[in-house]
UniProtKB/TrEMBL annotation, chain A:
Keywords assigned by UniProt, alphabetized: Glutamine amidotransferase, Transferase
Organism: Alloyangia pacifica
Coiled coil, from the record: none
Gene3D superfamilies: Glutamine Phosphoribosylpyrophosphate, subunit 1, domain 1
UniProt keyword annotation of Transferase present: yes
Top-rank lineage group of the source organism: Bacteria
Protein name: N-methylglutamate synthase subunit A
Glutamine amidotransferase type-2 domain location: 2-295
Molecular function as annotated in GO: transferase activity
InterPro entries, A to Z: GATase_2_dom, Ntn_hydrolases_N
TrEMBL record, chain B:
Region (Disordered): 114-135
Domain spans labelled Glutamate synthase: 79-335
CDD domains found in the cross-reference section: GltS_FMN (cd02808)
One MF term in the entry's GO annotations: glutamate synthase activity
Oxidoreductase as UniProt keyword: yes
Pfam family, one: Glu_synthase
Keyword NADP: no
Family assignment from sequence similarity: Belongs to the glutamate synthase family.
Keywords of the record: Oxidoreductase
Regions of compositional bias (Low complexity) in chain numbering: 114-124
Protein name as annotated: N-methylglutamate synthase subunit C
Automatic annotation (TrEMBL), chain C:
Descriptive protein name: N-methylglutamate synthase subunit B
InterPro entries (alphabetical): Glu_synth_asu_C_sf, Glu_synth_lsu_3
Secretion signal span: none
GO MF annotation list: oxidoreductase activity
């Protein structure tokens, strides 16, 4: 049960303001999700791969992490630390080795990709946004989430967005009713989740369908058939932004589109500060219908 | 040679445990009618209950209080979190929501009279607020249900508290066709339904779904009533830890938790007996949720479902509840299922003590009916006194136990004052098996 | 005309001011500026008062309205005019889901589209939607009139009781126990009155009427699939 915000820019001139706009939207959704908050931001593409990791003891864990990883991979590694998170940049072909190294050191991997960075923590959205300096971040699109935990734990890993493949992320408002069976099904195929969270199963389902060759659109269509319960999903990829609601469509969802952007929110009030909102086309996504925007 | 025919000995006819007489009769009933059985009365199967717990009492290591002389407070304040006007009750026992429609106006009046004499509250039900209950209840909780029958802002403003019903113990998640609830003229008028039809029932609220929406609904209810009235959220005993936590996050002042033995409401028998958890099993997880959020005693917990005696009350409080609510027991105190109507119960194909078709309106005791002749059998003044007496007895019993445990307020009873007779009860209540310091799920022995 | 600016005024104060003015029965007219999608605005009004909301509102705007007129110049969030008793609520833009839910009386006049579950469980309210309505509209609707100038989504009038549904455009599908019914002169008369009150530019003759088949009123095993 939660609040979702999303922003997909159609033009480049708003890119520097992306983090600022998303932060305001996210804070507006505090009432819907006071437990934790998170954001996936698709910023400038790095020359290589970005891995976002988290630690509860960042001072210890991040000190010398870049040098250690660089030594282990025998390549250059850049590191940017923001509070409990660090973004490590390294060559694309070193991903598997780097992930193994980081996990062996007890770091939590939030996500990886050429463009996507994920920041999420327990706490109020305004505090979470401030500790990571999200306002200052630029980018092409981003998805934010405020969580009111239903059944799984209120932890960093339980916060949204969930990323189960490179540059892919998913946020969810609602509650899935067959995620345990789906989790077992995915595990048989070798797709494993890290938490008991229902949304992570949704994310893993979509990633596994894409890995099997489905397009994002087809994978989202598949959620309507294979996932049960109540959901509004918003998903991000390197170039795109998708929305789907379950056929009953009880959980709120509203969208706004102008020449400059496409915006998503659980409630209209998240749009109140967006430029040109008064003239925007505002509508609610239809049930059981996949929406997708790509650059 | 003996020509007397020999009779071969036979084993007695053996009834199947799986296909018992009761099961077989239900199969025949289903085959004849094509519809599931609908009834009131809560779960009838034997489930682990408060009877499986015992108080330890004081002796040498603890000092008891003198009965009747040394003070043992029973008062409880509900709604201290946000409401400007919390509800102050003299006793920790309230009357649960029961609908006008199922219950007669006289029965509602009797509940109001009895509760008021005892210094406690009553609750409306599906079907709106009646003059009988508002007029005779000093403190009245107005239920806000998915059907919204008779829902109006004037009654909302003249209620003393508002109870948003998300679930009931008899049917967590339930709705659907509750046929056979025939709607009389007065009930139809209050519910805006055609007279004489079967009634259907929604399982979700019409204008919100989930705790994030509920938070906004509670905001609206508070804005309409000037932030004066406590907002209760009632949940069925399904996933009490999560549901209690979410009710608190959504902004509830009070959480009402109804176990599977609860339920005067008519619903499918299969629902009553097979969905939800026993009241005993629900309390500790709910209290844990409140404690984890730092809200135990800040947000009050009212427990219902199978409360019958002062011992039940004391045990519920010891496990962490702030108060209890009674429904079925209150109806029995008014005179429902009294053996004096046995002949008439027989005519209905049942027997005193087993009558549970409260939705059908043919109650010989005149309580769950809208039939004027039957209704007239219940004297609301006398019935109100019986309820008052019963509430007072339960309160005295609860105080007796609390004093024996050395408590000057019933809220100071705690789980450590209890032991369990069975492994099941020990596990559910998280108190030691009698004579041990261990319960299932607790490490070490 | 008093102005309440929600950039400067707390919701509680806005509602308390409006509620007091409504109760005073002075027929005052208020303007609310910068609503910015706020929830529970102008709720629980109980008296003749006129409120104009300049912009868009969140959940439950004009909830449980009695006698008051609330005019939203933008769009309305979920549950606008829920459980309205009387008075009039006008939405210039679109309305989100649950518009007019469980309403007992008064007129809800939506100039744009209404989303899903419009008129759910309505109990006597009149709702006029100048655009389209979404799926599951008039679910379990008990009483009152729902008029739609545009099209209706899936499962219109599912489990309907005695509410009257008038749709000018197409109906994607009818819900259980909802059927098209004959438009008799008395229905045309009701419809004409509603269209006039709502300032709708449409002729009653262009509409079709839908109502309850009443097959679910008394259990019949042969209709069990419809439950």
């Amino acid at each position: 049960m939660c609040g979702i915000v999303g922003l997909f820019l159609k033009k480049d001139d708003l890119r520097p303001q992306l983090g600022d706009m998303l932060t305001d939207m996210l804070i507006t959704m505090t009432d819907r999700g006071p437990d934790s908050a998170g954001i996936a931001i698709y910023g400038d593409e790095a020359a290589g791969l970005k891995i976002t990791v988290q630690s509860d003891t960042p001072d210890e864990d991040f000190a010398g992490l870049d040098a250690a990883l660089s030594g282990a991979l025998d390549t250059e590694v850049a590191m940017r630390v923001a509070s409990t998170h660090a973004v490590l940049t390294l060559p694309l072909d070193k991903e598997a080795k780097a992930l193994a190294f980081l996990e062996a050191r007890g770091l939590r991997v939030m996500g990886s990709g050429e463009s996507m960075e994920i920041y999420k923590e327990v706490g109020l959205p305004k505090d979470v946004a401030a500790r990571f300096g999200i306002r200052a971040m630029g980018g092409s699109h981003g998805i934010g989430h405020t969580r009111m935990a239903t059944e799984s734990a209120v932890t960093t890993l339980g916060a949204h967005p969930f990323s189960t493949a490179g540059d892919q992320c998913l946020v969810h408002n609602g509650s899935l009713s067959n995620h345990n069976a789906m989790r077992r099904k995915l595990a048989k195929k070798g797709v494993f989740t890290k938490t008991e969270n229902d949304t992570e199963v949704g994310a893993a389902y979509i990633s596994s369908r894409i890995a099997e060759g489905a397009s994002l659109g087809e994978a989202l269509e598949g959620t309507l058939k294979d996932l049960d319960g109540f959901f509004t999903f918003v998903t991000g990829t390197k170039n795109g932004f998708g929305v789907v609601r379950d056929p009953i469509a009880c959980k709120p969802a509203v969208m706004a589109e102008t020449d400059d952007y496409v915006a998503f929110a659980s409630e209209y009030r998240a749009f109140a500060d967006l430029p040109g909102i008064d003239a925007a086309r505002v509508w609610e996504p239809e049930p059981a219908t996949v929406y997708f925007w790509e650059r | 040679m003996d020509k007397t025919p020999q009779k071969t000995p036979q084993t007695d006819p053996r009834q199947s445990w799986t296909f018992s007489r009761e099961i077989n009769s239900e199969i025949r009933r289903a085959a004849a009618t094509g519809i599931y059985d609908i009834r009131g009365g809560g779960a009838k199967r034997r489930v682990p209950h408060f009877d499986d717990l015992l108080f330890l009492g004081a002796s040498m290591s603890r000092y008891p209080l003198e009965g009747y002389r040394e003070k043992c407070d029973t008062s409880v304040v509900l709604g201290t979190r946000f409401a400007k006007k919390p509800i102050e009750l003299k006793i920790p026992i309230t009357i649960a929501g029961m609908s006008f429609g199922a219950l007669s106006g006289n029965a509602k009046e009797a509940l109001g009279r009895g509760a008021t004499l005892s210094g406690t509250s009553t609750t409306t039900g599906d079907g709106g607020m009646t003059e009988e209950e508002r007029g005779h209840s000093e403190k009245l909780v107005y239920q806000y249900l998915p059907s919204r029958y008779g829902m109006n802002p004037d009654d909302l403003r003249r209620a003393d508290a508002i109870e948003v019903v998300v679930g009931q113990g008899a049917k967590p998640g339930g709705g659907g066709m509750l046929l056979g609830q025939k709607i009389t003229e007065r009930v139809a008028g209050m519910r805006d339904l055609p007279v004489g039809i079967d009634q259907r029932s929604a399982c979700r609220h019409p204008d919100w779904t989930g705790p994030d929406d509920l938070e906004i609904k509670i905001l609206e209810l508070r804005e309409i009533t000037g932030w004066e009235k406590p907002i209760y959220v009632k949940i069925g005993g399904a996933r009490p830890y999560y549901d209690t936590a979410l009710a608190v996050k959504a902004g509830a002042d009070v959480v009402v938790l109804d176990g599977m033995q609860g339920g005067t409401a008519a619903t499918q028998d299969v629902f009553i007996e097979h969905v939800g958890q026993p009241t005993l099993a629900c309390i500790r997880p709910a209290v844990q949720a409140l404690q984890d959020l730092g809200m135990h005693r800040e947000v009050q917990l009212v427990v219902s479902g199978g409360i019958r005696t002062g011992a039940d009350v004391a045990k519920a409080l010891a496990l962490g509840a702030d108060a209890v609510a009674i429904g079925t027991a209150a109806l029995i105190a008014l005179g429902d299922n009294d053996p004096k109507w046995e002949d008439e119960y027989r005519e209905l194909g049942t027997t005193a003590g087993a009558y549970d078709d409260w939705h059908e309106g043919r109650d010989p005791a005149g309580i769950t009916t809208q039939d004027p002749a039957l209704m007239a059998r219940l004297d609301p003044i006398a019935a109100g006194r019986r309820l008052r007496n019963y509430l007072n007895v339960m309160t005295l019993e609860c105080q007796t136990i609390a004093r024996a445990c050395g408590k000057s307020h019933v809220h100071n009873l705690e789980p450590e004052d209890l032991c369990a007779l069975t492994m099941e009860a020990a596990a559910m209540a998280q108190v030691p098996l009698a004579g041990t310091n261990w319960w299932p799920g607790k490490g070490g022995f | 005309m008093p102005v309440l600016d929600m950039l400067k005024t707390e919701l509680r104060e806005v509602n308390a001011t409006l509620q007091a003015a409504a109760k005073a029965k002075g027929n005052e007219a208020f303007t609310i500026e910068n609503p910015r999608g706020a929830h529970a605005m102008a709720v629980g009004l109980d008296g003749p008062i006129s409120v104009t909301v300049k912009g868009s509102t969140g959940y439950y705007c004009a909830g449980m309205n009695k006698l008051a007129t609330v005019h939203v110049t933008g769009s309305a969030g979920p549950g606008v005019a829920e459980n309205m008793m009387s008075g009039e609520v006008i939405i210039e833009g679109d309305a989100s889901q649950y518009a007019g839910a469980t309403g007992h009386g008064g007129l809800l006049n939506i100039k744009g589209n209404a989303s899903s579950r419009c008129g759910i469980s309505m109990k006597g309210i009149d709702i006029v939607v100048h655009g389209n309505i979404g799926h599951m509209s008039a679910f379990m609707a008990q009483k009152g009139n729902l008029v739609v100038l545009g099209n209706a989504g899936d499962a219109l009038g599912d489990s309907l009781y005695e509410a009257r549904l008038f749709v000018r455009g197409s109906v994607k599908s009818l819900g259980a126990d909802c059927v098209e019914k004959e438009m008799r002169p008395e229905h045309l008369e009701i419809l004409r009155g509603l269209l006039e009150r709502a300032g709708a530019d449409a002729k009653p003759e262009e509409f079709k009427r839908y109502g309850s088949a009443r097959n679910l009123y008394h259990f019949n095993i042969d209709h069990a699939d419809a439950y």
